[in-house]
Amino acid sequence: MVNLSNQNTLYPIHYSLGESSERVIIHQQDDLCITHEHLYQDATPTRFYQQQANTFCFVLKGELYLQQKQEETILKKHQGIWLNAHIVNTATLLSPIVELCLIRFKISDNSTPISPIKKVSSGTVESGLGRNHIKTWPLWQSSSGSISLELYPPRYIETLYYQKAATQYILSLDGMALISDREKHSKKCDNLGKVIPHKVPRAILNPSSESIIVLSVTTSHKTKGRVLLLKKTEPSLS
């Protein structure tokens, strides 16, 4: 396995998986690894996964059939499941195109198998109120970090904040989120998402007239880590 944990590595890094299919490493550090895979059925009908640490597999597009030892399930769009470490996981594409987001937290905290095989989505977990009263579906939460779906209402402007020690990854699923910085510069969150290091101010904006859903991944922090940056003028949607 290639070590890409050097902070100076330029991401994203693209690797071919045969013909049109590819693997894109978006972020790889000791506390968090984010990878996307763009798979085409005619080029890569089946993928085998055997990871050093438990890895959360979230379907961004398409449908696949997954086997872990004697257990099996079908994963559809916006459903996720843990691929246990050191076990061969077999994924067979059931649609012409499948896009996956693979999430791995700190390896030393994620070597114990997670069983039984269980997929999670907004339909299998209860929603609650997250930061700034955003509707949130907690897909996973442990000492290593958290994975959640967040719904932002129309014309929403989030209060600027930063994480004291945690890294955050944000990916738009339905609709297009904008991410604002301290200078109130807003940029679209592209189809590979955005990794935001600790102590870097950010705020999510929804300029559209429809609600949007965002995948949010946050590494662990031992104390209350979110710090609001209150200003007289909030970021603009224009």
UniProtKB/TrEMBL annotation:
* Domain of life, per lineage: Bacteria
Specify the protein name: Uncharacterized protein
- Biological source species: Marinomonas colpomeniae
| Classification of source organism | Bacteria, Pseudomonadati, Pseudomonadota, Gammaproteobacteria, Oceanospirillales
